[in-house]
Amino acid sequence: MSENKSSFSIPSILAIIAAILSFNFGAILGLVFAALALIFGVLGLFLALAPSKRGGGLSILAVILSMLGVIAAIIKAIMWFF
User: Fold this and answer.
1) Quick one: how far is CA 41 from the chain centroid?
2) Please, what sign has the CA dihedral across residues 69, 71, 75, 78?
3) How far is C-alpha 8 from the geometric centre of its chain's CA atoms?
4) Three-class DSSP labels, 52-70
5) Coil, strand, or helix at residue 47?
6) CB 40 within 8 A of CB 26
7) Contact 63, 41 (CB under 8 A)
8) 3-state secondary structure of 73
9) Maximum separation of any 2 CA atoms in the chain, in Å
């Protein structure tokens, strides 16, 4: 009997890394990383539907963090102007 272990998808891992990086940079790079986190997070969600892949929860967390990253980048940009 072969046992298939589920593995995390690469986009879900990249999404959480990009979401975390979006908080560590300024407004423009933070916005870029937040956008990447959103794209990879949505892609990771779709891939997590396959029974051989994991990462659905990680992708949801990345999407939420990317939205917070966008808000943080906007606040950083406003503070930079004033």
Assistant:
1) 5
2) positive
3) 14
4) CEECHHHHHHHHHHHHHHH
5) helix
6) no
7) yes
8) helix
9) 65
- The DSSP call for residue 8 is E
Other C-beta atoms within 10 Å of 77: how many? 14
pLDDT in tens, 31-79: 999 999 999 999 999 988 888 888 888 889 999 999 999 999 999 999 9
Q: Which amino acid is at 15?
A: A
Report the pLDDT value the prediction gives residue 67, as an integer from 0 to 100.
94
Which residues on adjacent β-strands are paired with residue 7?
53
pTM assigned to the model: 0.86
Joined tokens for residue 11: 């986009």
